[in-house]
Design a protein that fits this description.
Blueprint (H helix, E strand, L loop, with lengths): L27 E10 L2 E11 L4 E5 L6 H8 L7 E6 L2 E2 L5 H8 L2 E4 L11 H5 L1 H5 L4 H14 L15 H13 L5 E5 L7 H18 L2 E5 L3 H9 E4 L4 E4 L9 E7 L2 E7 H5 L4 H7 L1
Parallel strand pairs: 3-8, 3-11, 6-7, 7-8
Antiparallel strand pairs: 1-2, 1-4, 4-5, 9-10, 11-12
Helix pairs in contact: 5-6
The chain binds adenosine-5'-triphosphate (ATP).
């Protein structure tokens, strides 16, 4: 089988290194991060680390601060206290110019796809390349390659309004992958999709993870998607994901669970499912 993700006994945290990252250094580090909106703390004293090649799944009830946390990681929001390092650089202290450069290494899949309705699929996917003044021929080649990855080459000339929700989400993923990022931030990539379409999107995330070993943060409201990510690997021969044998767990998948702006869990899949915490047990049931 042409796979490089290995099942383990649910105890090791070893991960495959991300292609362009130093495997020794964490990709994302939050230390004592808090942010207050209108006198209300939305993120409170959060600390966690994401290592190269890790897929960090972020769970928690609606409004607990998941999207805010992701915007903090991308430098779109600044915390009131604490430090946030991405690729070793403190994003809380960076100028907009430096943040712009840093973001060329970060792919972002926004909630609800966030495509530009007036642009074609090709223009949407090429957006970042156009900003970086990549020559047209080269940009076109890369758009085709990126759309092929999400199995949507045929939609290249269409407009977002002509696409289904699942197709728009695929375009959004193709747009995030076009710069071959070292970190991908997925904000609810299956939000608002039906279960079958959601599974096709999760399969894409699994494919991206297992083909490129890119570090990622992924918010999901669907526990089923989270556990699929933790227990399935991509088979490049069949072109589909499949469940790991013997109840195996993908070792590079870890969880962060938030509630009311605080971390209530930070650990492996096995630790999560075996947690005795009453709140977590209720949340997972
Ligand atoms: N820019 C902002 N200004 C003021 N309040 C904000 C801002 N962004 C988010 N909030 C508030 O912060 C809280 C957390 O929002 P966030 O979007 O992070 O939640 P979430 O966990 O992602 O929710 P959901 O699962 O519903 O997407 C919410 O109460 C929200 O109203």
């Amino acid at each position: 089988m042409a796979n490089s993700v290995t099942a383990n006994s649910m105890t090791s945290d070893k991960t495959e290194p991300a292609s362009a990252a130093n495997s020794e250094e964490p990709v994302v580090v939050f230390e004592g991060v808090s942010i207050i909106f209108d006198v209300k703390p939305v993120i409170e004293d959060i600390s966690f680390t994401v290592m190269p090649g890790e897929t960090r799944i972020i769970l928690g009830p609606a409004g607990c601060g998941k999207s805010v946390l992701m915007k903090l990681a991308n430098g779109l929001l600044k915390p009131d206290t604490g430090t946030i390092k991405v690729f070793g650089q403190d994003v809380t202290k960076m100028s907009e110019n430096d943040l712009y450069k840093l973001r060329s290494r970060i792919g972002m899949v926004f909630q609800e796809s966030a495509l530009f309705d007036s642009l074609s699929v090709e223009e949407n996917v090429a957006y970042r390349l156009n900003e970086e003044k990549v020559p047209e021929d080269e940009a076109h080649k890369r758009v085709v390659e990126s759309l092929r990855f999400v199995e949507l080459e045929k939609a290249i000339s269409k407009f977002p309004s002509e696409l289904s929700g699942g197709m728009r989400r695929r375009v959004s993923i193709a747009r995030a992958l076009i710069t071959k990022p070292d970190l991908i931030l997925y904000d609810s990539p299956t939000g608002g999709l039906d279960p079958i379409t959601s599974t096709t999107i999760v399969e894409l995330v699994v494919k991206q993870r297992d083909v490129s070993h890119t570090t990622s943060l992924l918010i999901t409201h669907r526990l089923q998607d989270a556990f699929t990510l933790a227990t399935y690997q991509f088979n490049t021969e069949t072109g589909h994901m499949e469940k790991l044998p013997n109840n195996g767990i993908v070792p590079s998948t870890r969880f962060l669970v938030l509630n009311e702006g605080r971390i209530v869990f930070d650990g492996s899949t096995e630790e999560l499912v075996h947690s005795d915490d009453p709140w977590l047990k209720e949340y997972l049931s």
